[in-house]
Design goal:
This protein is of the alpha+beta class. It has 7 helices and 22 strands. A 6-stranded antiparallel barrel has the order 1-2-3-6-5-4. It starts with a helix and ends with a strand. About 2% of the residues have low confidence.
């Protein structure tokens, strides 16, 4: 009797499951498949600080924050946001199998809110996502975000690309350009997690939300994967983002504004640098001892330069040895020169 009842119950259960699968939409099937494929590549990042008790002087680790990371490759490289690990004395990575691994910081780019970590986990435990092409995104494309909001691990939210080429501020007040905007819910703890397309490809690193309350209101932002692909090799090789150098020191922006100019004033040109070789001039004094404004940079390559942030963003598009066009103003006249960018020094 019991046996017949169990067989009947299992038949009903299997029939219900089959029924549900038959009537699942193609979009639902895609969401399920992408989540199952991508979730092993998402990690839980715990940030701890070491403090000393003011009375006993005992040293102990206390939680500072949590976030999300993405396995970059099977050698243990992890990508996350810089603000997730900022100020940490100890970082722990928890994989989907719940094993935990101490992580070391390989490189940081605060101006891009990116950080590269490394764990010594076996390669068979590490599954990396295929990388997509964020330049091929259009508004309306389906996207999925996986993260650990409020400490709730491996949470999935789904939405669309709601806008492209947005700008947000990094923790050091630099502008991060060409950011992806999405309505997939992103909450505290999602930071550093993947934004994925319907093919299961990594197309962005979730980094921020726009919300008066601090929780999702349908406007989230992700750093495009093409930006990440450009920055990560430099962070791995150098520990920081390396930009080519012009060989100049920058003066206060109000110097240029005083003359009704938008641009970057040159304070000093260093010897033997691209700037000196191309004839650029810094601030100087005339024969009466008055300070005379030097050259004001207003363009680099095809990029308009109105402030120091613009200049840094323009330089990041090139590498040492590249020949670029530089537009500047001298004595009220717009001029142009060509120079070969040098390698920056620490």
């Amino acid at each position: 009797m019991l046996k017949r009842w169990l067989i009947g119950f299992l038949s009903i259960f299997m029939s219900a499951s089959t029924f549900a699968q038959q009537f699942a939409t193609n979009d639902e099937q895609n969401t399920i498949q992408v989540f199952q494929h991508a979730s092993p590549s998402v990690v839980y990042v715990t940030n701890q600080a070491i403090i000393r008790d003011r009375y006993s002087y005992d040293v102990r680790a206390v939680p500072r924050g949590t976030g999300t990371g993405v396995i970059w490759n099977q050698d243990g490289t992890i990508i996350t946001n810089y603000h997730v690990i900022d100020g940490a004395n100890k970082i722990t990575i928890t994989l989907q199998d719940q094993s935990s691994w101490p992580a070391k910081v390989v490189g940081i780019a605060p101006s891009k809110d990116l950080a590269v970590l490394k764990i010594e986990a076996p390669a068979e435990k590490l599954s990396a996502l295929p990388l997509g092409d964020s330049n091929r995104l259009s508004v309306g494309h389906k996207v999925l975000a996986i993260g650990n909001p409020f400490g709730l691990d491996t949470t999935l939210t789904v939405g669309v690309v709601s806008a492209l080429e947005r700008e947000i501020q990094s923790t050091n007040q630099r502008t991060i350009r060409n950011v992806i905007q999405t309505d997939a819910a992103i909450n505290p703890g999602n930071s550093g997690g993947p934004l994925i397309n319907s093919r299961g490809e990594l197309i962005g690193i979730n980094t921020a939300i726009y919300s008066p309350s601090g929780t999702s209101v349908g406007i989230g932002f992700a750093i495009p994967i093409n930006t990440v692909k450009h920055i990560v090799p430099s962070l791995i090789a150098n520990g920081r983002l390396v930009r080519p150098s012009l060989g100049i020191e920058i003066g206060p922006s109000h110097w240029a504004q005083r003359y009704g100019l938008k641009g970057v004033p040159i304070l000093k040109v260093s010897r033997g640098t691209p700037a000196e070789k191309s004839g650029l001039q810094g601030v100087r004094r005339n024969k009466w001892g008055s300070v005379v404004l030097g050259d004001v940079i207003i363009g680099l390559g095809s990029n308009v330069v109105e402030n120091y942030d613009d200049l840094l963003s323009a330089l990041e598009k090139y590498k040492p040895g590249d020949r670029v066009k530089l537009d500047y103003v001298r004595s009220g006249k717009v001029r142009q020169t060509q120079l070969v960018l040098a390698k920056s020094t620490p």
